[in-house]
Amino acid sequence: MFAISRCFRLSRCLPAFRRGLSESSQSGPRTLVAIDFDRTIVEQDSYLAVSQLLPTRQRKEMQNLIPKCGWLNFISRVLQLLHSEHKVNFATVAMRVRSLRAVPGMLRVVRRLARIPEVELCIVSDANSFFIDEWLQAYDIECLFAGGVFTNPACVQASGAVLVLPYQEQGDCELCPFNLCKGSVLEELTCSGRYERVIYVGDSCNDLCAMKRLREKDVACIRRGYELHGKIAAHGQELACSVLTWRDGHELVELLMPKIVA
């Protein structure tokens, strides 16, 4: 249906490949650290950052559509406008994504955890594979996420436009958008029997869905000052796992290390 010149790794294919690499070199109990991307690894929401390539008035009009149409439809429309009306191709979009700042200390978290043989890292995000891959490659850390990247697949068409597709189509979960239920991803991972424990790091209410699937021995790490932290008091009793709150990566790594090496 589409002429595609550059395809980015589909979220359902990549994790299986990466898990195969890890299984050949490691055995025994393992801990999975699953991390959100926007406002958890990178400081800014990547979709809003890319929308800043639009003229101010048009950007505000697009952002007004988010409550009604959702984030995936928002970024799809933004990318379409950038390419068709403003002649912005994938290379410019990639440069914008690569310029996003990491949450302070988060690169330290990722690199330190990746050095622990019993730990496997993955990303669970409602962003997309194009944005995430570009950013990880900019910091040369894509190989550290051996557990995979679970997100909306994206590709670059022959025209140079970026096309984003839904990871799934679901209507059962009210906490998550139609295109990605983070809880279903976490449930699949925890039920695989591969991980003795799961640590989930996030900031938003769709991360709550994933955290509700965690077990008593698992850990939810909620970023202070962001959406989920403000609402967790009303939902804390729904979580079976222990809960940590963190401000930045420097604090997060100090909180996590005793739990992982214990």
In a nutshell, what does this entry contain?
With 262 residues, the chain is an alpha/beta fold.
| Overall strand count | 9
> Which structural class matches the secondary elements?
alpha/beta
What is the C-level CATH assignment?
Alpha Beta
Strand order of the largest sheet: 4-3-2-7-8-9
Strand content: 15-25%
Q: Which CATH architecture is right? A: 3-Layer(aba) Sandwich
Q: Catalogue the unreliable spans.
A: 1-25
- Termini separation: 52 Å
SSE sequence, one letter per element: EHEHHHHHHEHEEEHEHEHEH
Helix content: 40-55%
- CATH fourth-tier homologous superfamily: HAD superfamily/HAD-like
> What is the typical, i.e. mean, pLDDT?
89
Radius of gyration, Cα only, in angstroms?
A: 18 Å
- Basic shape: globular
Kindly identify the CATH topology: Rossmann fold
Q: Biggest sheet, open or closed, and with what strands and sense?
A: 6 strands, parallel
Tally of structural domains = 1
Per DSSP, the total helix count is 12
GO molecular function: metal ion binding; phosphatase activity
Keywords: Hydrolase, Magnesium, Metal-binding
Pfam families: Put_Phosphatase
Family: Belongs to the HAD-like hydrolase superfamily. PHOSPHO family.
